[in-house]
Structure formats: structure tokens, C-alpha cells
Design brief:
This is Nitroreductase family protein. The protein is α+β, with helices and mostly antiparallel strands. The chain has eight helices and four strands.
Length: about 200
């Protein structure tokens, strides 16, 4: 990836934030370069230290390198057709899940929140290592349940394509235009309110 491409994807923020937050983005173009297993273990270690209710750490991850064709295919087949054309080039695919019950059997109402915290830790650690990931809600949860024999209290929530950023030009439309589109976020005033929500 050229320096010009890297700089163009930096977030322009209204207030100063950590560089790793400005650098994180969700590419669809991945370089044909494997992700070392040691790097993945570093990402999972970062996820391990996310906060969680009652320290239950409900997050779980199933992952596969593209070089492990059978395991990669099992995850890949869970994706909806709209994500498959570009995600098939990712060096790593992951399925992120959360355990929806506490160890005592009671429902964990914040399990999704805790998985989100772990995912945030994971992806920011990835960014610090020069890796990037694209989270995808576009997958078939029922197919994932069947493929991996998931118990009822383990909820598949999101999938992740992970790797080193490749050239946008390797993508076909409509993915190329999406890759090159300007990055945008709502202003803070649209979602953060002191005291109460507006009428």
C-alpha cells in the first residue's frame, strides 16, 4: 500500500484522538500476504483484556487462515453472497461469538456489549500491527450454528475478514467505489447529549 493511500484513509476528527483510532478503517482489498499466527495470538491477547460484566469474558472466536483451505471454506460458506467476492481474498476469516448466559446459568444481558469491547480491543491491536479488518454482519448465523455445532447459549454475532491492505484497484464494482469513497461519521452533537436526549 502506498503512503498516499495510507494517508488518504486517515480519519479527520473534530477533536484529538489516538492515532490508532484514526488509522483504523475497514478495507475490502487485501494483499496476498499471510498473517503470522503469532500476530493473531497477539490480537486475541488484546481481546482477552477487554472489560466484561462479572469478568465472564463471554467472547469466543473461530478463525482460519486461507492456507487452511477446508477450515477457511467452512467459515467462507457462512457469508452472504454479497460479501464473498472480496472476502475470499482475505488471509484470515473469523467468526466472533458470545456466550449469552453467565456461569450460573442466568442470562447475560450485556454479552453483546462485552463481545463488542473485545472486538474493539482486537481490531485496534491489529491496526497497531499494520493489519486491518472488515467486520461483517452479512453472514448466515443458522448456517454457522450447524457448521460448528454451536450450543444454544453461544450466539454467532459477526464475522471478520483480516489481513494487510491491498490495492483498491483489484476490486470489481460496486466494491471499488466503496473502497475509495470518503470516510464519514456523524458529528458528536448528533449522538452525545448532556443531561437528556432532545425531544
Amino acid at each position: 500500500m502506498s503512503n498516499q493511500t495510507a494517508v488518504s484513509r486517515l480519519a479527520t476528527t473534530a477533536a484529538p484522538v489516538l492515532d490508532v483510532i484514526r488509522q483504523r478503517w475497514s478495507p475490502r482489498a487485501f494483499a496476498n500476504r499471510p498473517v503470522p499466527e503469532q500476530a493473531l495470538q497477539q490480537l486475541f491477547e488484546a481481546a482477552a483484556w477487554a472489560p466484561s460484566a462479572m469478568n465472564e469474558q463471554p467472547w469466543r472466536y473461530i478463525y482460519a487462515h486461507r492456507t487452511d483451505e477446508a477450515a477457511f471454506r467452512q467459515l467462507f460458506d457462512c457469508l452472504v453472497p454479497g460479501n464473498q467476492p472480496w472476502a475470499r481474498h482475505a488471509p484470515v476469516l473469523m467468526l466472533a461469538l458470545t456466550k449469552t448466559a453467565y456461569s450460573n446459568g442466568q442470562t447475560n444481558a450485556v454479552a453483546l456489549h462485552d463481545l463488542g469491547m473485545a472486538n474493539s480491543h482486537l481490531i485496534l491491536e491489529a491496526t497497531a500491527l499494520g493489519l486491518h479488518g472488515h467486520f461483517m454482519g452479512g453472514f448466515e448465523a443458522d448456517k454457522a450454528r450447524a457448521a460448528f455445532g454451536l450450543p444454544d447459549d453461544l450466539q454467532p454475532v459477526v464475522m471478520l475478514a483480516l489481513g494487510y491492505v491491498g490495492q483498491a484497484e483489484q476490486l470489481d464494482e460496486p466494491f471499488l467505489s466503496r473502497e475509495q469513497a470518503p470516510r464519514q461519521r456523524r458529528p458528536v452533537a448528533a449522538f452525545a447529549f448532556q443531561g437528556q436526549l432532545p425531544n
